[in-house]
Design goal:
CATH class of the largest domain: Alpha Beta
Structural class: alpha+beta
CATH topology of the largest domain: BirA Bifunctional Protein, domain 2
Oligomer: single chain
CATH architecture of the largest domain: 2-Layer Sandwich
Distance between the termini: 97 Å
Largest sheet: 8 strands, mixed
Radius of gyration: 43 Å
Bound molecules: phenylalanine
Number of helices: 12
Length: 361
């Protein structure tokens, strides 16, 4: 005959086993073993029929209490286990939302730097050396040597930034308004023949969708005993074909005036504007892209070169404009906004160095 003491014993054993069960499967096995149809508590229930009504009352009640207790312990433990499992899963799958969504790529080359590399490759192939000069220039290198008369309004026409400080001669330095002073420096330093390009920052007081106070120019200079506008045209045609990666470009020379060249010409490149996009190298339209001319004899003299023996040609273009035309950037100001999203879109891989063999773009 099962007694209340046996029930207490059974309760202790079952509760200890519930406490000891360390996964859901063990707990489920225990539930079946105690409360299932063939379970130990169910078996005791079956005995009730053979008891006297009084016995059945007390024993039955005790058995029900036991059954409820064990059931509740199992349910509680199951819930705790499920919660712990969920916690573990959440922990394992946790996402740090403050981390960048993708691993940032290794920088990007700015389109202006890219175009400079492209131009160095193109003109380098044609025997041009790349020369450099400072952003802050003397009045002589930026203007006087280039045949701008003293106090001539042309100096103001270039919207010059003058520095405040004056030197011993009372001259103020300037932020170079073009890269031409690098040509002056090269001529002062080197005997002809000269075949050079220079690229870099230039400065003028200007600000709209196609002008920024800091911009970039590329200029070329060739000085030799036999140079001509025809040479100029063929060099520019070859360079622009390579740069825009087209089979042919048409150039149109329009008379113009620069103090430092005579004759001077503005050069337009043939383009197509139909369909809302601009294509260089086809079509019957024209786009102004550079200034050029034969170096003025006064400039040669100012730089210690005999104009009776030598002559030369020079040309200058805006690098930013070249970049916008080739890579389809609509607003010049974006180039200098320091927006990394813009750079990510328009920038170039640091691993793809321009060269004529593998293509410059
Ligand atoms: N230095 C000129 C400018 O900035 C460009 C140029 C260079 C024109 C060489 C002719 C020859 O306007």
């Amino acid at each position: 005959m099962t007694t209340n003491t046996d029930l207490e014993e059974l309760e202790r054993t079952l509760l200890a086993r519930v406490a000891a069960a360390n996964d859901e499967a063990a707990l489920e096995a225990l539930r079946v073993e105690a409360l299932g149809k063939q379970g130990s508590i169910s078996a005791l229930m079956k005995n009730l029929g053979a008891m006297s009504p009084d016995e059945r009352k007390t024993f039955g009640a005790a058995l029900n209490v036991l059954k409820d207790k064990v059931t509740e312990e199992i349910v509680t433990k199951k819930a705790a286990m499920a919660e712990a499992a969920l916690d573990r899963q959440l922990q394992a799958e946790a996402v740090d939302v403050t981390l960048p969504p993708v691993r940032p790529r290794l920088g990007a080359i700015h389109p202006v730097s890219q175009v400079m590399e492209e131009m160095a490759a193109i003109f380098g192939e044609m025997g041009f050396a790349v020369e450099e000069g400072p952003d802050i220039e003397t009045d002589f290198n930026n203007f006087t040597a280039l045949n701008f008369p003293k106090n001539h309004p042309a100096r103001e026409l270039q919207d010059t930034f003058f520095l405040n400080a004056r030197d011993e001669q009372g001259e103020r330095k300037v932020l170079r308004t073009h890269t031409s002073p690098v040509q002056v420096r090269t001529m002062l330093r080197q005997k002809p023949p000269i075949r050079m390009i220079c690229m870099g920052r230039t400065f003028r007081k200007d600000w709209d969708a196609t002008h920024t106070p800091m911009f970039h120019q590329i200029e070329g200079l060739v000085i030799d005993e036999t140079t001509s506008m025809a040479d100029l045209k063929s060099v520019l045609t070859a360079a622009l074909k390579a740069y825009f990666e087209v089979d042919d470009v048409k150039l149109r020379f329009r008379p113009h005036h620069f103090p430092f060249t005579e004759p001077s010409a503005e050069v337009d490149v043939g383009c197509d504007r139909s369909g809302g996009t601009l294509k260089i190298g086809t079509g019957d339209d024209w786009l102004e892209i550079l200034g050029s001319g034969m170096v003025h004899p006064n400039v040669l003299k100012n730089c210690g070169i005999d104009p009776e023996k030598y002559q030369g040609y020079a040309f200058g273009m805006g690098i930013d404009r070249l970049a916008m035309l080739k890579y389809g950037m609509p607003d010049l100001r974006d180039l200098f906004a320091n927006d990394t999203r813009w750079l990510k879109h328009y920038g170039f891989s640091p691993f793809l160095l321009p060269g004529l063999a593998q293509g410059v773009g």
